[in-house]
Amino acid sequence: MNNSILQSYGWSSFYEKGLSAKSGLKPGRILTAHRREFLLVSESGLINAAISGVLFHKAIKVMDRPVVGDWVLFSEKIGHSPRIEKILPRKSLLKRTASGARKRKNTAVNNEQLIAANLDYLLIISGLDRDFNPRRVERYLAAAHQGDIEPLIILNKADLAANPEEMKIIIEKSAMNIPVLLMSAKTGMGISELEKLLEPAKTYALLGSSGVGKSTIINAIIGEKMLETKEISHSAKKGVHTTTKRELILIKNGAILMDNPGIRELQLSAELADIDETFADILEISANCRFSDCRHYQEPGCSVRDAIGRGEISETRLQAWHRLIEEKEAQKP
After folding, report:
1. Strand 71-75 to strand 45-51: parallel, antiparallel, or no bridges (unpaired)?
2. Angstrom distance (rounded) from CA 135 to CA 317
3. Which of 39, 18, 35 has its CA nearest to residue 27?
4. Tally of domains within the chain
5. Are 296 and 171 in a shared domain?
6. Which of 40, 50, 144, 183 lies 20 to 30 Å (CA to CA) from residue 302?
7. Cα gap 24→76, rounded to integer Å
8. Are strands 150-156 and 203-207 parallel, antiparallel or unpaired?
9. pLDDT tens per residue, range 175-200
């Protein structure tokens, strides 16, 4: 089997372990998806494939359904269109809780929504205009930790901010040693710095709310207008949904980019451990609280409240931690 095309899209020994010569199935990676129809890249090039009836009916759980970025095994039979028969084990998975699940947690809608699989890096995009929201960035970081994806934060539209460096410092305090890059995709500022970070055969997903400039960033990296972009409504300063589908794009230096439709509200399905990783500073200080189950409200001997009093942690950061913890607890059956 000639793996050169597959390797350029991230194929590795991790996925090869799922192959069986006896099955007669071929590997491919999902580039785009539309309901039960998928565009795959395979050793012979691009092919259109549908999910097999067997796999479709076995996929009772959302986790069992194919998603953009998945490596799959498909069949090709004379007289039949290609069929996806199996999903290979995933290295990482970006997901969120389905909209409305928090309110109706005991119903069938309490499902997770899969966003993308087998991502190496999550490029968290925040605009330095009215989109600037450190608490939202913290949610995205928790989603990255949950999915075993390495995060990188990009603060776009630096040309619109009066004090972009000060805003960067605010994010760096929440990022806990995660790289933060200032950028203006419109002027080209920061694009070359980002390009240097993009590695061949690694997959990078851009995540952020509508209108933060995800498509503009991809177009700037590619060097041509490949994805449609739209101006923000100047009256409302609200994002405009430009990207309507998820798609893997192989760029000139060999890296793989994926744009995402804008996500303003990301309701987490993260475990408490993923939240702890995002708020590692609170976790470390809380080890000195008098009570092991301290919730850091007004309990006596709370080291976290003491740290807030000393200015080591902001009140808003603790409030963000409380919201995520309460949201996670509300999802329990």
Report:
1. unpaired
2. 7
3. 18
4. 3
5. no
6. 144
7. 9
8. unpaired
9. 878 999 999 998 999 999 999 999 99
Same-domain pairing of 223 and 143: yes
Report if residue 283 sits inside a domain.
yes
Task: Provide the whole-model pTM.
Answer: 0.77
Tokens encoding 277 = 């990783």
pLDDT higher than threshold 80 for residue 240: no
218 or 280: which leads in pLDDT: 218
Q: Say which residue, 273 or 93, is predicted with more confidence.
A: 93
CA distance 201 to 29: 13
Which residue carries 């993260």 as its tokens?
A: 270
Shared domain check, 134 and 68: no
Report the candidate in 124, 127, 99 with the shortest Cα–Cα distance to residue 112: 99
